[in-house]
Amino acid sequence: MSVLVNGSPTEEICIKRGLKQGDPLAPLLFLIVAKGLGALMRKAVERGRFHPFKVGHDGVPVSILQYADDTLCIGEASVDNLWALKAIL
């Protein structure tokens, strides 16, 4: 795995274990990942790769709901959406 710093990838990083419970970096790392997931879902919807669920009379598209440390991905029931979600994750 590598990380983008100012648009350029770093050297490969080998991940060996997760964070310990109570680690002060955990909330920050969670926010970074949650924001990235939201951005990837929006891009997939914009490009037509993921078809969101339409809500209400106006058909407002909803593809992801995030609150605190919970994330819910919502879309039309299709195999194409499953493949798109797998590619995103």
UniProtKB/TrEMBL annotation:
Coiled coil start-end: none
InterPro entries: RT_dom
Record's keyword terms, sorted: Nucleotidyltransferase, RNA-directed DNA polymerase, Transferase
Pfam families membership: RVT_1 (PF00078)
Reverse transcriptase domain location: 1-89
UniProt key word Magnesium: no
Gene Ontology MF terms: RNA-directed DNA polymerase activity
Protein name: LINE-1 reverse transcriptase like
Source organism phylogeny: Eukaryota, Viridiplantae, Streptophyta, Embryophyta, Tracheophyta
